[in-house]
Structure formats: structure tokens, C-alpha cells
Batch of 2 targets.
Target 1
Amino acid sequence: MEPLSKLKVVEMGQLIAGPFAAKTLADFGADVIKIEPPKVGDALRKWRLLKDGTSVWWQVQSRNKKSLSLDLKEAEAQEIVRTLLKEADVLIENFRPGSLEGWGLDPQKLLELNPRLIVLRISGYGQTGPYRDKPGFGVVAEAMGGLRHLTAEPGRVPVRVGVSIGDTLASLHGVIGILLALQERHSSGKGQVIDIALYEAVFNCMESLLPEYSAFGEVREAAGSALPGIAPSNAYECSDGGYVLVAGNGDSIFKRLMKAIGREDLGNDSQLENNDGRVKRVVELDQAIGQWAKTVSTDKALEILDSVAVPVGRIYTVADIANDPHYKSRGNIQTIQMHDGSKLDVPGVIPKLSRTPGSIKTLAPDIGENTDEILRSIGLNESQVASLKERGIVFTNIKE
């Protein structure tokens, strides 16, 4: 039995933040009903690279879920949602603030309907505050949260992280919030609302950024591949044009690193015994490591530093990931079989639990694939379902 096998979740989300949170719960056994708009479904179905008309990303984001396709502008569709939520444990939504209320699904009223319900609300700026009504995507949240300012080479335009990290951080904070609320519900028997803002999730990961500004007026600036205030830690180019990432910032590690690159004079320098001293001479240290790296290939640098237990690695492309034996040995890459018989590699389930691990149980659904099944489960008969279909309120088994 998986750890969340008795958890009933209704997902009213789109694209990334809400659906990623629901996917994480589904991986560990939660029964997730995803509510999608008619005909087009979740916009993620058409994002990035498509296979047979559907994004392969969809197979990651919506695995282990059931699809219920409703026109939420219709009162009867809204009533179907209320019926589902009477028995649900969790509702996940990531629309702009006020959207649920506009559909007659105000969380406070839902809690009156089901006092045990836990409602996760993810939005750009949160449900309160002067920015609450502004549209907010992950890229804007990453900038507001402080991350974008730091992702650049000094003096060059800040760049975005190559994935939707703001959405994913918000999703993971949302999952933490749900698990905390479930734990508290064991004692109180009551649900509650969890309010996650994308920018807050990013800001929560900004380490010492704010206290350094508060105590010293220090505004941390972009530092490229280095880690300001921690030395040595950087990327160094090797003789073959590849790069190695070296983290020699532990005191004993630093000594081993300096010996390995033939700079025992620096390793034995009393001024460099601790991080604060090394930070003062970080340019000198980076030059010394960089000069050594230029004399060896990437593979040789990895071999030498691995042999003396200095944290070191190469920069991975997805091709490197797909062919790496460590990824494979830990089940980080799993192969699923699509309905047409073709195979697709997807990320495995994380985190790993020793006794009750999660798993990939079902493929991501077609639009409305489970509509009939779900409507029958809440007591609607065939004629009622047929009537709803005819009037365009529900949609079922629409192939893409």
C-alpha cells in the first residue's frame, strides 16, 4: 500500500504549479481527479514537443490521474464539483485569485460543505496583498523572489533558469503545506486553506540574501558560476573545452584539493585554513585551480579529484542524464509504454521511501477519459450523464 492510497484529491489546476503538486501526491497513491476544460483540456497538452498531437511533458505531469472534463461556467458543472468535494480530502487550484469564487466555489463555503477539506491555492502573488489580482507566471515570480538578479555573469543581463523553477518550488511548498495540514487534521478533525504565492516560494529559498542586506546593507550581485562568500566553488575550463565544477570549500577538502593540483603552498597557508580567509583571496584561488584545469582533460580532472574525495562533477546535458549508470541504478529514469505501443522514458518517482514507495501506475489520461466513471461514482445514472453531454456541460473520451 502506498502512503497516500486513501487520499482523495480534486485538482482544478492548469499548466505547472497546481498539477505538479497533484502529480506528486498521485505518485504516492492519492486518487487524483483532474478537472479540465472541454475540448482543449489543460494547455500543457500542447506545450513544447508533441507526439501524436500531445506534449510528451503531459505524460510526466498528469500520470496516475483521472480526467473529468467540465464546463465550469455552467451551474450544473459547479454542482458536480461540490458533490466531489463533499467526500474529498484535498482541493488543489492555481487560478488567479477570485476565480473559484466566480464559479460559486468559495473555499470558506466549501469548508462549510466539508469541514475536513484541505484547500491548496497557488497563485502568482497570493490571495491577499496589493498585487493579488495581477497575473503572475513563474518567470515573474522568480524575478520578484530575488533569483533572477543572481543568475548572470557579472555585468551581463540576468538570464532565466532553463526550467519553470518558480512554479515547481511553489508546488513543492504546496505539497509540504498539504502534508502539514493532514497531520494537524488528525488532531483537530478540521481542514484549512493553504495560500502559496509563487514569488514567496522562490524567496523562501534565497538563503542569506535578506539578513545580509539587513545587517550590512549588502546587495548580493550576480557572480556567474561562483558562489559568493564561499570559496573555492566554481566552474573551471579544462584542456578539451569541457568544464568541471569543483566545490573545495570545506576546510579539509581544500587541503586535499590544493595538494591534488600541486599547490600545497596554498593548502598550508594559515590564512586559508577557514572559509572567511579563503573568501578574501578567492580570485587567487580561482586562478590557481583554473590554471591547473587547463592542463588536463575533463575526464582526467574528474579522475584526479574523485581519487582524493574532492566534490567534483561535469555539466550534464539530458543526453548525459539518459545514459548515466547512476541515474539508471536508482530508478531515476523509467520507461513507460504508450497506447500506440511506443516507449517513452520519463523521470522516476521521487522521493524514495523504503517501505511504501510511490510508483507510476497509469498513463496520463485523454481529455475527459474518466468522465463517465466519475459521474457514475457520485450517483448519476446513464440518462443523466447523457443529458449533461448533450447540453455541453460535461465531455468524455475526447481523443486528441
Target 2
Amino acid sequence: MNGYERIQAALHGERPDKTPVMLHSFMMAAREHNVTMEQYRNDPKLIAECFIASADKYHLDGILVDIDTATLAGAVGVRVDFPLDDPARTTIGNVNRLEDYIRLKPARVENYKYIQIWLEAVRLLKEYYKNEMYIRGNCDQAPFSLASMMRGMQNWMLDLMIGEEEQLRGLLEYCTDASTQFIQLMVQTGCDMVSNGDSPAGPELISPEMYVKYALPYEKKLVDAAHHTGVAYALHICGNTDVILDHMLLTGADAYDLDYKTDITKIVNTFHNRVTLIGNLDPSGVLALGTTASVKEKTLELLSLYKNSPRFILNSGCAIPPTTPSENLKMMIDTARNS
């Protein structure tokens, strides 16, 4: 099997010949290619080169193409800061009052420079690998997360408590349109999977009831949009998602990219042979700061829990820090390959 075939097998509940590996490693890929984040985010050819070099070095099965968590926000008018050697980040929202969403210009995300760079990088990678490597084009923020950037996190949390229902849903629909546009554009690159992150929708910030009411319906719309085009979909939420795992299944996503903070036993019991887990080693405490021995130990623990299910793709629980020792990453992958 090649990488594409391994990941396809895991997504369809079929046993691959080896554990498939697809890493959230864009910062490390850039660092190891001696490229700053400023250079990386501005050149699609350089982005592709970073991932190709990383895939060759670590013998990956899939590539998760990511740039930052602020691109879609920038495309809808949120102010973005661009550090030299860190991913871009939002600084202040662009919707001062919740009711101001009705004054927003219709989203046209294809006009934003960094959206086009992201799309071109994915297209180049798909063109290079064809069906040898599985290419996942991340599409930045899901609607709830994007709304939190447009309002600013503090304001958005207050909105959820005291805001008018019609206005909350109005802004979420606006964000859903923007997120869907990115997915539709990404699909045109030929990628094999699209995905979004919706970390502010996790239980560490809002209740499960609020997740069901204000995040899940809009996540499901993104999944439906991807499936309508025939492309697989993965959803990522940071933090401990124990209490919403059952709800997350209702989105209909093909795979869930979950944080190491979520109880792996609960993930296995909830997902098992229904959907695929992408994850979920601790990227900081284990991969970046651990020893090769601890990396091997934690990888074996994870693999043993999934030994009776083929629906598993090895990854970290979130983005891998750029300072992660190469030998730790190699140990994780070698352990999976030889187990």
C-alpha cells in the first residue's frame, strides 16, 4: 500500500498494511527547511517544498496543509498580525456590536491573498504526489470559531449569554458562508480531504448545551458541503472533548482530529469502528519535551488501544511545536511502523 491507500483504508474501516501517519507539523516542516513563517506564508511553492521535504524525511502517508488559524478571519476583515517566525494571529475583532453583523459586506474569501496562497500550495502538492500521498487541505476556522474572532473572544462569550438569538445565528450563518466558500475552493485543488478547527466550541469554554445549539449545526453544514463534492471531512477541537464526543458524531464527519487531553479510552469506546480518530499524542509534553523512550512508550499505549480497530491515523493531539526533536518524531513513526 502507498500512503494514500493506507489513509483511505483507515477512513473506510479497512485494515491497512501499516499504521498510517499524517502529522499536524507545518511549523516544524518550515523550521527544518530553514524557512521563517513570514517566508512560508507568502510563497506557495515554498510551502509545498517544506512539506515534500518533511514527508520524505519522515516517510509520511499524508500531508495536512496548514498555515495558521487567522487566514479565514483575515479574509472577512479581522485585523491580523503577521510575526516573523510565528503563525499569523488575530488582534481585534471587526464586529463591534453583535447587531452590526448585518452591515458586513458579503464574504468573498477568494479575494484574500493568503487564501489563494494556501490553495495553490495544496494544488502543487496534489499535482506532485497524485494518488501516492493523501493530501488534506485544512480550511481554517469553523463558523463558531470564526465568529469568536470577528467579535473578540470576551465579547463572543458574553454574546452567548445575553445576545439575541436572531443576531447570534445571523453572525454564525455569515461565518458558515465564509467557511463553506473556503471548502469549495479547496476542493477545486484536487485534495483528498478538507477540515476545519472549532476549538472555542469545546467544553473548556462553553457548555455541551451551547455546543449543540451554536456550534454543531454549523459544523454539520460544513461536513455536508464537503460530502456534496465527494471529499472526506475531518473536524478538530482542542482541549478535553470527553463530554461532547457523542454530539460530535452527529456532524457526520469522516474523522475527528482530537487533542491528547481527551480520554483516549472514551474515544475508543465512542468511535471504535464508526469513525476514524486522527491523533492524539501530546505534542508538547511528549513529542517536544519527552525522551525517545517516553515517546515510544506513549505511542505503544495508543496503538494498543486501537489494535482491534483499523479506524486510526497516527498524529499528535494538536500542532507539533517547531522545536520538537527530530529523533522523537522518528521514534513515534518507527514505533507505529514496526508494531
